[in-house]
Amino acid sequence: MKYRNELIEGRGSKKLPFLLFLCTENVDMSKRILITGGAGFIGSHVVRLFVQQYPAYQIVNLDCLTYAGNLANLKDIEQSPNYFFEKVNILDVPALEQVFKKYDITDVLHLAAESHVDRSIVSPLDFVYTNVIGTVNLLNTAKTYWKENLAEHRFYHISTDEVYGTLGDTGLFTEQTPYAPNSPYSASKASSDHFVRAYHETYHLPVVISNCSNNYGPFHFPEKLIPLFINNIIHQKPLPVYGDGKNTRDWLYVIDHARAIDVVFHQGKNGETYNIGGFNEWKNIDLVQLLCRLMDEKLGRDPGTSARLITYVKDRPGHDLRYAIDATKINRELGWKPSVTFEEGLSKTIDWYLDNKEWLEQVTSGDYQHYYEKMYHQS
Ligand code: NAD
Ligand code: DAU
Fold it and tell me: How far is the CA of 141 from the centre of ligand 1 (A)?
């Protein structure tokens, strides 16, 4: 590491052990972490956690602000002295190289991705570009920039449980479950996971991967089930349940995912994968019924008002039946477990959307996108 070498060299005095201690402390505390996709849903919670929890780290949020990226998600921390933003696309290699150089990046937390399954069915190539090629661009940039002292760095790839495909009525996804992605989204994430693993095996890049189940919470873009249905209930619009509503997902409060990412980043072993999940399976229709009941209570509407909005629609093509994560490894080896029950988390999430209707209106109207286009002179 540069600091350590500069300070150790040329100081053959008795003070060396003390200096060494000081410098090692310095090295450890002076990480300059690139977080990609930090303006998105999960990324913004990860950026907030790292900025607040580690004031000695420099946190560089790199995001090209697609429809899903919104700097309003980070308003509360944007003035923090250890927070920096770079509007860069991970497909732009020279710009990536510049950012690594400008901040002397020591570690990467890679979250930037196209993340919505329905969009991947319409435009698979967008997912190949960002999720596969973008990831390989980042791997190459990190590998080249860190070539002098690879082992001192870390490339952490944040992935999804969807890479494992679908479960039947029983069983859980473990870290040993073979990959069997079924949608263009999950195929692109699976591919990116394989590249990350290959860079570890082939080039000894120090990597770690985590595969997480469905997140929910504040700042979730209202195209995904929970925020879409909250928004539709507020406006008394139909709630489009795909197929028979029996598909099952394992839900985790987003702040618990951010906590898990913190733990894996600091304590996870190189070359390992960690599954992260909520131990919290819900059939879509049961979740939607619960959501309707809570929303009626919070909005002071008669019981059953929101449930009348439920409309069964044509199923998503290739719709995975069931996801459920076995999170024993991260619990046993790193001591992580979810801190929020689903009832608490869902209630907090609804309250957040009801208290932040302006955010919801801005992202559904597209106002914020026009604002950033103007701000960054992009067409
Ligand atoms: P999101 O769609 O809310 O955010 C993605 C962010 O990436 C946005 O800010 C967007 O602007 C940015 N981005 C997209 N393309 C980019 C590009 N080419 N260059 C730079 N930035 C780009 O996604 P999310 O739900 O927060 O998911 C974040 C990560 O976590 C993804 O890798 C996703 O696969 C993974 N994940 C998500 C979930 C979930 O339930 N949402 C669960 C497990 C894993
Ligand atoms: O499992 C982790 C994954 O969870 C992440 O990797 C993805 O980025 C994230 O989008 C999410 O994928 P899903 O496809 O599970 O999430 P979505 O919110 O789109 O759908 C959840 C379930 O609800 C799924 O079974 C499809 C169903 N659904 C979804 C929408 C948007 C509906 O029935 N109606 C809807 O309108």
Answer: 20
Q: What CA–CA distance (Å, rounded) separates 82 from 371?
A: 25
pLDDT digits (tens, 9 = 90+) for 11-44: 222 333 333 333 334 335 689 999 999 999 999 9
162 is catalytic: yes
Ligand 2 neighbour 247 (Cβ under 6 A): yes
pLDDT, tens only, 101-154: 999 999 999 999 999 999 999 999 999 999 999 999 999 999 999 999 999 999
How many residues are given for the chain?
379
Nearest by Cα to 159 from 173, 145, 140: 173
Would the pTM count as exceeding 0.90?
A: yes
Of 185, 104, 197, 118, which is closest to residue 148 (Cα–Cα)? 104
Is residue 181 a contact partner of residue 187, using CB atoms and an 8 Å limit?
yes
Distance CA 229, CA 239 (A): 6
Output DSSP code: residue 371.
H
